[in-house]
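fyi for ur records
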Amino acid sequence: MATATATATAEADASVSLPDDLIINILTRLPAKPLCKFSENMTLRVACSQMNSYPYHEFAVTIKESTVHMLPSRWELVFFAGENGFYVCNPSIQEFLKLPHCSTCTSGEVNAGLGFDFVTKEYVLVHLFDRSLDTYDCDIGIEVLRLSECRIGGDDSGGWKVVEGKNCPYQIRGWGVFVGNSFYWMIWDEFEQPGEEAIVRFDLDTEEFGVVAAPKGCFDTEEVWFLVELRGFLCLVDSTTRPLTIDIWMMKDCEKPGEWVREYSIDLNGFSNEITKSIVPLEYRDGEILIDSNQQSLEAYNVENKSFRRMSNRIEGNWTWLRLYTDSFFSLGSR
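which gave:
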């Protein structure tokens, strides 16, 4: 299990003080490129532990970012996304690397997805980026980065491949979920909801976008549903329709998108109302669903006897994320 905290600090000389109107006058006369160099430093602290114990090792790195996110994952590496790029880390050997430069997103948002291809033994990272300069219009492109132990950090590590002529048809929210060599995102549109076609899909084989309908008769576009992968299937999680209950809908056949089965209904009567809105299933393992409980603890839900057990409390810190990972000597080639 890996957890990360992020603290942002800005470097400044307190002895220098200029009037606000003078600062604005100076900045408006500068070209854009020098202005991009004014950025905050952020310290990432990554702590690793067994799922039922306290952290047994941790380390810290400093990056030039004002905002950073830890991508959902549960393999040998953990990934971070910031406004200035993507980063990869192997907590086992405390190695950290910034990935090749990605395309610029005009909206400033970071939309991505991460998966692991067990056939090619590659990590697959996709990045959605807006190319439009129109405030009310989008031109969302997509690019793909593939990483393996023999193709990372070195001269042959490759770079992002922009998928030419393919645009994402909708604005999306949340991180992409990788299932069956396709990525899935929830659709988000501020001005027009697409109805029951609530999910956008990108097929890596055909490099085509498509849409997937939500479960018929129960999907509410006003509520916050989200996607996860459990047991190798795409799952749609609903924690808002029924009080103190999480319903997990599973799409068991990727060849028949839109056919859903309500696989699990989890009673949350032992949790507070605040926590029930922030419970995220992480993985199915040995008859249990591992759950991140409001970024406070790791819980295990036994699907047979429908009971919870607490596996680990979280470490303290600002902006804390929890991800599962496997110990390894996977080299990033940075040393």
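Residues 9-16, 32-38 have pLDDT under 50 and may be disordered. thats all i got for now
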